[in-house]
Amino acid sequence: MATRTSVNSYLRKEIYINFPPLEGKVALITGGASGIGKAATRLFINHGAKVCIADIRDDLANQLLESLGSGTNARFIHCDVSKEDDIRKAVDFTAETFGTIDIMVNNAGITGNTVPDIREVDLHELQKVFEINVDGVFLGMKHAARVMIHVARAR
């Protein structure tokens, strides 16, 4: 019987051994300055991708860029995924900087406060969660498609 440690070790090896080739690919990662987005940024860079980090946390994004070292193929743009103009600018910046977008990672998200009683849920807070977690993903797909569909048709 496999232990949790051996399964995790196996999965880590599988990710690095069987990870799809990313050499020369361009990724835009929302929420790329922390958590899963930060891990994805590092993983993509380590596998040869060029990455644009789109995040509202300028401080964390700049720390990440610094830790990746100069000469890496990573850039940062401030982006609030709940604002369509921010998403549009992030897509345009990525395409202008790296020539295209091959991968869109709609990672930015929030949970909101935990409220044990539905009668106490703040509607404004719930709407903010949806603006980021749902609308933000839609806007990311919408604007990345402008670049990605054009490139796919040209191939």
From TrEMBL:
Gene3D superfamilies: NAD(P)-binding Rossmann-like Domain (3.40.50.720). It holds the Pfam family adh_short. One of its GO terms (molecular function) is xanthoxin dehydrogenase (NAD+) activity. One of its GO terms (biological process) is abscisic acid biosynthetic process. InterPro entries: NAD(P)-bd_dom_sf (IPR036291), SDR_fam (IPR002347). It comes from the Eukaryota. One of its GO terms (cellular component) is cytosol. SUPFAM superfamilies: NAD(P)-binding Rossmann-fold domains. Belongs to the short-chain dehydrogenases/reductases (SDR) family. This is Uncharacterized protein. It comes from Rhynchospora tenuis.
